[in-house]
Amino acid sequence: MSVSVDQTAMLAETFLKDYLRQNEYFTPANELTDSDDDDEGVGDLRLMLTRAVPDPDEPDVIYFFFKFGRVFRNGGDPALSKLVNQCMTALLAAHPEVNQFKHEMCVDPAR
């Protein structure tokens, strides 16, 4: 029995948000500021997932929207790519059913 793209996107989002939280957003404590405690944004956190959503025009695609903190100069930083890949590898290992859909990553600065 296959799972719908909507259910899979919700599952993936929940897993990735928990995974990032458990890994403290890959952010050392000395990089955090008081602004990281508010609900307004990601502050100086190295990596966060804002959402995982199905593409309304392509039903076999899930978009993953990540935000990165200022420690990375741009979205092309190899260390940032490594963290995103680590997250996706963990997701696919825990939930192989996500592989039945294509993945598109959107990695943008938090500010």
Task: Put the structure in a nutshell.
Helix content is 32%, strand content 22%. It has 111 residues and is an alpha+beta fold.
Distance between the termini: 41 Å
Shape annotation: elongated
Structural class: alpha+beta
Largest sheet: 3 strands, mixed
Low-confidence stretches: 36-41
Strand content: 15-25%
Helical residue percent band? 25-40%
Write down how many β-strands occur, each being a DSSP E stretch of 2 or more residues.
3
Average of the residue pLDDT scores:
89
Rg over CA atoms, rounded to whole Å, is: 14 Å
Question: Could you explain the architecture of this structure?
Answer:
With 111 residues, the protein is of the alpha+beta class. The protein contains 2 helices and 3 strands. The chain has a 3-stranded mixed beta sheet.
List the helices and strands and how they pair.
Layout: H1 5-22, E1 47-54, E2 61-68, H2 78-94, E3 102-109
Parallel strand pairs: 2-3
Antiparallel strand pairs: 1-2
Helix pairs in contact: 1-2
Question: Which descriptors would you attach to this protein?
Answer:
111 residues, alpha+beta, three-stranded mixed beta sheet, 2 helices
